[in-house]
Amino acid sequence: MQRPIIALFGPTGVGKTAIAVALAGRLRAAGERPVAVSADALQLYAGLELLTAAPSAAVQALLEHRLVGCIPVGERSSVARYARLAHREIDTLIAEGARVIVVGGTGLYMRAALGELDLRPAPAPELRARWMRELDERGPQAMHAILAESAPALAARIAPTDGHRIVRALELREMGALPSGRDESQLWSGQTRHPTRLIGLVMSREALYARIDARVERMVAAGAVREVQAAMAAGASETARKALGFEELLAGDVDAIKRRTRNYAKRQLTWLRKLPDVELVDVTDRSPDEVAAALQ
């Protein structure tokens, strides 16, 4: 019988990597071969290790992580590309008899790793170019108003300043491929490609926010500003620049990174608690090994 994938999901700063390492040690002691697969949209990029809190070489010596630093910072990425990579890694590892631990904080990427996404078709280049020209000429608010006329429910879920998502929705509208109300988020489904144990790591807001602030300070002290400057010099792609804190570090606004990260973690916690079939594990004031012991 196939041993289930262990999927560790949780907000940024909750300690997913440390818990995965502790759990891997216990699995290894039981005769298993644990390998982690990252489900993080930005840890894919080489050159953003500090900013994305990617597992260090020391951590990887304790637990191998796949899909970390595997894409040049100048390339665009997508959930479709990630899904192909993740499925290949996971299927290969299972065939080899490894115990897969999927670790991530990006909900859609966790879903993409574990299941099948009904991904919308890509637009023709000329369609994308036309809508991008419209965006440049008219601005995102005007384009958002256009979307709201024909797809008000979808427009309500997109910020009027998010030009990229507005353009994508307008493309899909023109292609007749707008998502239905039932599946437009696709953030979770109970159906997975392999047997999976989904574990949601939660923590008190006060403790989590303190950890986030401390991690941002460590990240900056370790040279994250130089890292993003180097990424810009190397031609960082639009998708790479979406890394949490990228623009704020370029502007030298550390407090803004903390605020944005805390807000993101709050949304992650809210979403996590709504997942079906999730085992919620409160890690407040517990060491990684204590949590790992409880998960065995």
Describe the protein in words.
With 296 residues, this protein is α/β, with parallel strands linked by helices. It has two domains: 5-118 and 194-295, 3-Layer(aba) Sandwich (Rossmann fold); 125-175, Histone, subunit A (Orthogonal Bundle). Helices cover 50% and strands 10% of the residues. The chain has helices at 16-29, 57-62, 79-95, 107-114, 125-138, 140-150, 152-155, 163-175, 205-221, 224-233, 246-251, 254-272, 288-295, and strands at 5-9, 34-38, 65-66, 99-104, 196-202, 279-282. Strand 2 (34-38), helix 2 (57-62) and strand 3 form a beta-alpha-beta unit. The chain starts with a strand and ends with a helix. Mean pLDDT is 90; it is low at 181-187.
The figure for the number of domains is 2
Q: Tally the beta strands.
A: 6
Q: Write the CATH fold name of the largest domain.
A: Rossmann fold
Over all CA atoms, what is the radius of gyration?
A: 20 Å
Strand content: 5-15%
Q: What is the rounded distance between the termini?
A: 18 Å
Shape: globular
The CATH architecture category of the largest domain equals: 3-Layer(aba) Sandwich
Supply the number of helical segments: 13
Q: Which class of the largest domain in CATH terms?
A: Alpha Beta
SS class: alpha/beta
| Percent helix range | 40-55%
Question: Averaging pLDDT over every residue, what do you get?
Answer: 90
Give the full name of the CATH homologous superfamily of the largest domain: P-loop containing nucleotide triphosphate hydrolases
Order of helices and strands: EHEHEHEHHHHHEHHHHEH
Strand line-up of the largest beta sheet: 3-2-4-1-5-6
Q: What are the low-pLDDT stretches, counting only 5+ consecutive residues below 50?
A: 181-187
Q: Give the biggest sheet.
A: 6 strands, parallel
